[in-house]
Amino acid sequence: MSEVDIYTDGACRGNPGPGGWAAVLRGTDYEKILQGAEAETTNNRMELTAAVRALDALGQPRRVTLYTDSEYVQRGISEWLPVWKTRGWKTAARKPVKNQDLWQQLDAAAGRHVVKWRWVRGHAGNPGNEEVDRLANAAIDDLLRVKSAE
After folding, report:
1. Is 17 annotated in the active site?
2. Which of 29, 59, 88, 123 is catalytic?
3. Global pTM value
4. Contact 7, 64 (CB under 8 A)
5. Which of 19, 76, 113, 133 is catalytic?
6. One of 9, 19, 76, 113 is an active-site residue; which one?
7. Ranges of each domain in the chain
8. What is residue 117's predicted lDDT score, i.e. its pLDDT?
9. Which of 20, 38, 69, 113 does the annotation list as catalytic?
10. Which residue out of 19, 38, 47, 76 is catalytically annotated?
């Protein structure tokens, strides 16, 4: 099973507001850049979308180290998700888990790989994190440019 490093990030202008996501996948013999945007979303949805799309883009099972600056994603997948599943997708307060659709997609996507989840501090000079932050914001800029031209 080959190895790949993935950096992911989500961004939002307003929360909710226009948002973007990006992922950079790097293996020994390739690099893939993914990015996208949505007109009305939240930062957490964009963070989750980036991780889902990145893992879904891998054609076969891989050993993945996924770097995110989102504690929501890192703690959610590592700590909270197993508990939510046993509670029927309810929080400790018995309320529905926010972004359940994306959490379920992330759970399924991660289940196809061996994933190490690594949190990195955002905007702290980590080159991979800085790159995906730039790409996520560029996706928002592109979306807003298209919308203003309409």
Report:
1. no
2. 123
3. 0.96
4. no
5. 133
6. 9
7. 3-149
8. 98
9. 69
10. 47
pLDDT at 1: 75
Pair of tokens at residue 80:
């909270």
**HEC sequence for the chain:** CCEEEEEEEEEECCCCEEEEEEEEEEECCCEEEEEEEEEEECHHHHHHHHHHHHHHHCCCCCEEEEEECCHHHHHHHHHHHHHHHHCCCECCCCCECCCHHHHHHHHHHHHCCEEEEEECCCCCCCHHHHHHHHHHHHHHHHHHHHHHHC
Task: Kindly list the averaged pLDDT for each block of 10 residues, start to end, along the chain of length 150.
Answer: 95 96 94 97 98 96 97 96 96 96 98 97 92 98 91
The predicted structure's pLDDT at residue 134: 97
Q: Residues 10, 19, 36, 76: which is the catalytic one?
A: 10
Architecture of 3-149 per CATH? 2-Layer Sandwich (3.30)
Q: Annotated catalytic, 5?
A: no
Q: Mark whether 20 is an active-site residue.
A: no
- 113 counts as catalytic: no
Alpha-carbon distance 132 to 22, whole Å?
Answer: 5
